[in-house]
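WARN retry 2 of 3 for item q-0093 after timeout on previous attempt; input resubmitted unchanged.
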Amino acid sequence: MAIREIPTSQGLPPLRLPAGALSSQDREHSIDPVQDQPAIEPIEHKLRVDFMQAGPPDNLKQLLDSYVHYQSGPGDEDPWSEASVGEKPLALQYAETTIEKQWESEQRFFENFESDDVLADAPAYLANALRECRSKSNPEQAVQQERENRAKWYRLMPWKNLYAVFKRSTLGDLSRPLIQNPTPGAGYGGSNSSETRYVGVLVIPSDANVDTVADEYGVNPTYVRRESEFETHHSSSAEMPVPSDYGIELPAPLLLGDYPGQSEYLFIPWSSGLVCQGPFKQEHAYRVTCKHEVFASFVLREEGSVFLPVDEGISVPARARRFIDPQVAVNHSPEQ
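OK item q-0093 returned
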């Protein structure tokens, strides 16, 4: 496996990334859909741009109160049609249009599934699935099944994933300061423990000595963390992927999201962006975002950049802070 070393400053070790964490425009970029962690889908990067451009809801009334995603679906009334709920957030209006347009743009892959040249532009998971259809006894039928599965995924995406995030009890817990006072820096950073902070940390092997590593690199041991600390959720036994599961070599300078309620999750460099390791995003492959990733997009709006800030801790390289694929950020234009 090719490893790309990204230099750091202040005498810290370099960030060593596998091919799957490189930009898709990088000639060494490659993802094995079978062996590697799932690639960040193009729709995920586009939704992040949508959320970044729209910004957070204007007020908390725009967030749902009692929505239950596993009991809701496309045949139901739009939850924002209720009198007690404000107008649907602009971020979601953008997202729903983007989902429709992305699905339309993928039709050519199904229609040309035998062409390697066409599939070279397809999302990694879809390209692999369509290539496998070629070896089926009835390729056309197999492709049609893949088309139906993909259509269902996009159709359910708002109901089973996005709406569940835009609730007062989820996103509202993170975004409240940002929504109430939507000015640059409001809602993250600073020393207030009730606000989200982005912390630079040096993640080390689980059997390494924190003080020894801190002395070696001249950093505060507070910001040196064993990988094993991030293997399970703090209030449950839910297992979470860690950097080494993605092929990232340790020690690794990475960004940590420190959230209200003592929750903290790493942002793992992957597919030209970052992936939240939290259980909501990771437990189900169909989910394209979580409240931490949506909130990160709102922070980017205040930053005016695709790079998340470092509020405290060690200096981490730009690649460990790049949340959105730059190519998508430049080429995707949100629409209502």
